[in-house]
Write a structure and sequence with these properties.
The chain is α/β, with parallel strands linked by helices. The protein has 15 helices and ten strands. The chain folds into two domains: 225 residues, 3-Layer(aba) Sandwich (Rossmann fold); 97 residues, Rossmann fold (3-Layer(aba) Sandwich), CATH 3.40.50.1100. Helix 3 runs parallel beside helix 4. It binds ligand AN7. The site of ligand AN7 has 21 residues, from helix 4, helix 9 and helix 13.
Length: 359
Amino acid sequence: MAIQTRYTGLIERYQDRLPVTASTKFISLGEGNTPLIKLQHIPRLIGKEVEIYVKYEGLNPTGSFKDRGMTLAVTKAVEAGSQAIICASTGNTSASAAAYAVRAGIRAFVLIPEGKIALGKLAQTLMYGAEIIQINGNFDQGMALVKEVANHAPVTIVNSINPFRIEGQKTAAFEIVDELGDAPDYHCLPVGNAGNITAYWKGYSEYYADKIANKQPIMCGYQAAGSAPFVKGSMVDNPETVATAIRIGHPQSWDLAWNVQEQSKGWFDKCSDAQILAAQKMLSQYEGIFCEPASATSLAGVLQDLSHGKIKEGTKIVCTLTGNGLKDPDTAITQCKSTHPVTIEANLDAVKKAILDQM
Ligand code: AN7
């Protein structure tokens, strides 16, 4: 009988493919190994012959894909003797950085745009005890400040401009190929700084080069219409979207992402906030999968491109759902205003009537 190996995290599982040595101390919270869920109802509902899988990254330890990159970025920061990390964030990076800093016993400084990060992310970052610096500005301004201050203070940047973030995040592509037996035809992601699309492409490319995968996917990056520099072809100074995680106008991995587009013969496109929220609700109500608004941008893009015929039928599509729906309760509750629960008397008759009225 085969012995079941229990990995504690993605560095341990993929250490042969990551920049670690036998003496590296892994800073881990058991990240990675997230479910790849085949959608059962949505393809039928939209009348398309396709296999759509979602990579549910909301089940990482802090509820987003950032943990894949953070485990390695913090591991390497500690290995290099760093006592503090810093990031700018739309919310998820700050929560992840804060958690892994605690795990490592070092400090985390996070710059966040005041009033523009989802409630769950703020709650996490507060609980982990990070040094929170709120700015009167957006993510892009915060990122510029972080890059400057890192020249003047002994802090390691753990945004995705840190190459170890990309290295860690590429393992999601490994997991998908390991599970499906090959790369999918299309891989679709929400794009903010474009670190994640860069990371997936790196992962797929490495597996292809080593003949573990027989092909590489077409990479499709989707942005919110009000924050879509890759669609515009130039930076956006005042990005706006309900999907605050991707409210980013000056992407940090600009050149890298254009390379991905070119090499994979993929594309960038945009979806309206209404499309994003509709996709988020569809995943919840038809599949039982709750992701945050930004994450649903990947499915919103797929639905759009399937309807145009740009994504072909008879194919296998993977969408990354980057963060957990619990991250942003405000947007979820606002979206369900019309179905708010009614309150009744606490007796059997009233409850019986409430149920029968619904049947
Ligand atoms: C849920 O936390 O940039 O294109 O500061 O939280 O790799 O930037 C978050 C990004 C998609 C975009 N989905 O990924 C941050 C931050 C969710 C996210 C993205 C983010 P990239």
